[in-house]
Design a protein that fits this description.
rod-shaped, single chain, endosome, Helix Hairpins, mainly alpha, 4 helices, 162 residues, coiled coil
């Protein structure tokens, strides 16, 4: 089965029962189609060059053969323009699908992060945290008072109370 018929018929993909292809499958198919169309472009470009060479070869000697070659060249150029348009459309669709897939992954990961944050905060009580912070502040004040008391010089005999 040719690549084109596989593309349009679905190619027997395992994703039919799931309601559509995965983004990776769709991207792979779009890339395959791009590759096929690029090869077709190259083929048509060589055919155009060949027909142009035939037209030049026959030139004024055999006008009928030269005109036929130019007509074929014109048909190939028309096909080439159609393929260019199709490739542009496929590239746009592939880029849009890649962006959508990226956005979906980012959103999914943000959801996981939100769940993890919720789980972390699950065991925290705001009142307990406030009490703990007050305890810490009180202990820091006590430590500062102790430090101040130790660092002040003891006045042994320097001052007398008269």
């Amino acid at each position: 089965m040719s690549k084109i018929s596989k593309f349009f018929k679905g190619g027997g993909s395992a994703s039919k029962g799931r309601g559509g292809p995965s983004p990776q499958e769709a991207l792979a198919r779009l890339r395959e189609t791009e590759e096929m169309l690029s090869k077709k472009q190259e083929y048509l470009e060589t055919r155009i060059e060949r027909e142009l060479a035939v037209a030049r070869q026959h030139g004024t000697k055999n006008k009928r053969a030269a005109l036929q070659a130019l007509k074929r060249k014109k048909r190939y150029e028309k096909q080439l323009n159609q393929i260019d348009g199709t490739l542009s459309t496929i590239e746009f669709q592939r880029e849009a699908l890649e962006n959508s897939h990226t956005n979906t992954e980012v959103l999914k990961n943000m959801g996981y992060a939100a769940q993890a944050m919720k789980k972390v905060h699950e065991n925290m009580d705001l009142n307990k945290i406030d009490d703990l912070m007050q305890d810490i502040t009180e202990q820091q004040d006590v430590a500062q008072e102790i430090s101040d008391a130790i660092s002040n010089r003891a006045m042994f005999g320097d001052e007398f109370d008269e």
